[in-house]
């Protein structure tokens, strides 16, 4: 396995440009099926509102998966991600329309480790809210 | 109601190994909107140095709590699942997960703590091959809202 990004060409503080990911209701239905998480707060507006939520919200793991996609697309090889962790700090509300919600993810090289590994800190936002905090991936570069 | 601290240290094993299929990886990758050929096309995966298609980094969520589910639904723990939200998640890899892997998952409740009015419960899941090779560890923290009140 080999990342396309070279360790020697990466500097601490270097930014990875933001990418926007659309989330529509259909994406949550697909994610429920693929992941096995059928909690109705992720697809049933009536249920979501009955438990005090503003509307249907995305699975936290869906948002985390988009962060993973951001990192693997940057690194060039999904196998290069050796550690990936997040805290779910706010919810992604997904209205029932053609636009859905937008998750905007950017990154910065936070540290360079031994063995050609780097720490990528992620910033994930939806609307005014920061939806992931303490989001870090350790990536094996070449 | 506070969660039962006696559950800290308890271990739960999935009833059977999880068989990773190319189709399940493809389904998961499609669901997260990721069209990376390394998740779909064996030739592309081999060209990138892998033995077969590999799974996205968050894929273990599909199976890593299958054993722990029995533990956290035990009435003795006192968890009100309707009030649960996902607090934190982490995956630590020794190697990628490949199509064809048969994975054994053992989950341990490592910590229960109160933060304000909420209860935090952390589960570590050790994912190994059927020959005992450690593949990855998943750390899952769930939050029971109002549980500590």
TrEMBL record, chain A:
Gene3D superfamilies listed in its UniProt record: Hotdog Thioesterase (3.10.129.10)
GO BP terms, alphabetized: fatty acid biosynthetic process
SUPFAM superfamilies given in the database record: Thioesterase/thiol ester dehydrase-isomerase
Domain MaoC-like as annotated: residue spans: 12-111
A GO term for molecular function: fatty acid synthase activity
Span of the signal peptide: none
GO cellular component terms, A-Z: fatty acid synthase complex
The family this protein is said to belong to: Belongs to the enoyl-CoA hydratase/isomerase family.
Name of this protein: MaoC family dehydratase
Species of the source: Planotetraspora phitsanulokensis
From TrEMBL, chain B:
Pfam families: FAS1_DH_region
Domain of life (superkingdom): Bacteria
Family stated for the protein in its record: Belongs to the UPF0336 family.
Biological processes per GO annotation: fatty acid biosynthetic process
A single GO molecular function term of this UniProt record: (3R)-hydroxyacyl-[acyl-carrier-protein] dehydratase activity
Annotated CDD domains: R_hydratase_like
Record-annotated FAS1-like dehydratase domain positions: 7-137
Protein name in the entry: UPF0336 protein Pmi06nite_82460
């Amino acid at each position: 396995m080999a990342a396309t990004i070279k360790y020697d060409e990466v500097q601490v503080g270097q930014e990875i440009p933001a990418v926007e990911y659309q989330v529509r209701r259909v994406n949550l239905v697909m994610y429920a099926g693929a992941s096995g998480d059928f909690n109705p707060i992720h697809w049933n507006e009536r249920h979501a509102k009955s438990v005090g939520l503003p509307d249907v919200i995305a699975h936290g793991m869906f948002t985390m998966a988009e962060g993973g996609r951001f990192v693997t697309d940057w690194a060039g090889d999904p196998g290069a991600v050796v550690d990936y962790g997040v805290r779910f700090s706010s919810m992604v509300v997904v209205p029932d329309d053609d636009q859905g919600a937008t998750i905007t993810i950017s990154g910065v090289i936070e540290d360079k480790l031994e063995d050609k590994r780097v720490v990528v800190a992620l910033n994930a936002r939806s609307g005014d809210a920061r939806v992931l905090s303490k989001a870090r991936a350790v990536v094996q570069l070449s | 109601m506070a969660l039962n601290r006696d559950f800290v240290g308890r271990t739960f094993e999935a009833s059977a190994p999880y068989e990773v299929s190319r189709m399940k990886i493809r389904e998961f990758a499609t669901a997260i909107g990721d069209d990376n050929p390394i998740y779909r096309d064996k030739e592309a995966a081999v060209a990138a140095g892998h033995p077969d298609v590999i799974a996205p980094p968050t894929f273990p969520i599909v199976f890593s709590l299958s054993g722990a589910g029995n533990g956290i639904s035990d009435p003795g723990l006192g968890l009100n699942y309707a009030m649960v939200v996902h607090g934190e998640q982490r995956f630590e890899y020794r190697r990628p997960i490949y199509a064809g892997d048969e994975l054994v998952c053992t989950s341990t409740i490592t910590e229960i703590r109160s933060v304000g009015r909420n209860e935090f419960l952390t589960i570590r899941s050790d994912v190994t091959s059927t020959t005992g090779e450690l593949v990855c560890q998943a750390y899952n923290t769930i939050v029971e809202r109002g549980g500590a009140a």
